[in-house]
Amino acid sequence: MLCRNIFQLRTNIFNQMTKANVLNYKKRHVLKLLCTKSPYLIQPEKSEVQYDARIHSLLDTLNKLSINNNIITMLNNNHPILNVSSDQLFSNSTTLLEFGFTKDTVGRIIVEYPNLCNIKNDELFRLLDLWRQVNFTENHLLHLLSKHPQFIEFMGKNVLLRISYLLPYLENYKNIAVLLINVPGVIYENWGTLKAKLDYLHTHHIPKSKIVNCNALELSLFEMKTRFKFLERVGVYKQIDSYKKKLAVKNPSITNILCTSDEVFAEKIANVTLEEYEVFCELYKLECKDDEEDCDYEYNSE
After folding, report:
1. Considering the entire predicted model, what is its pTM?
2. 236 part of a folded domain
3. 191-203 vs 221-233: helix crossing angle, rounded to 10
4. Residue 148: what are its φ and ψ, rounded to 5°?
5. Structural domain tally of the chain?
6. Which residue of 94, 137, 212, 257 has the fewest CB atoms within a 10 Å radius of its CB?
């Protein structure tokens, strides 16, 4: 009877710990403690013991750096970060902190992009130093690499070359940084494809600041042309041949033209039904197939 009462007491304690906001790791940890006191409870599997040991090691390392470790306790036992040595984690996390990332950001980066912890510390330092040599402001650089930590590992001659290609189109490094933050794909996209889209937007006298502050460049050149051509044909957009004339014409903004859903674009911007716009898209594809040179038709090559 005494053993049963003790068992019931421990079971009640454990059940109280299983509220919705209690993390899985903490529940397993409590279960282990209870198991050491009662032979009636099932012993944890060896894999769980190993997982808990790795979690403990990871938490200890992050605690030394005062990094927020709440997210670590939510990892499953297959997460790559659990295979990183404590020394490697400590040295790379220290380098990220010294670069200027906040402790919360470092905690998030190592969980969301654990590859950075597998890079040798000297190489990580070299990559970060290359980014530092780009003429981005401190705030823009930290914002960019915090939002897209994969850029750290990807840094190299190709990135520096892409930035040099973008500079004449976007005028300054601030615009380039903002574009990379909003449309990270431009760092990987084929330059000929990206250049064609930038040239096309230039023909419409779209301000650089407007281009970089929206996700218009995520569209293909054909999708851009389809939107502009449709608005021209329904009389909502007027083609202009100079920036001065643009100031006198009230065309929809690039955000409304290229950064809205098909439904919003059709009904709110073009003032037609979605069905009418969809019919035009199909007809315009056929039109471009018949005259690829004039339309720069890309549909089949995407």
Report:
1. 0.74
2. yes
3. 20
4. -130, 70
5. 3
6. 137
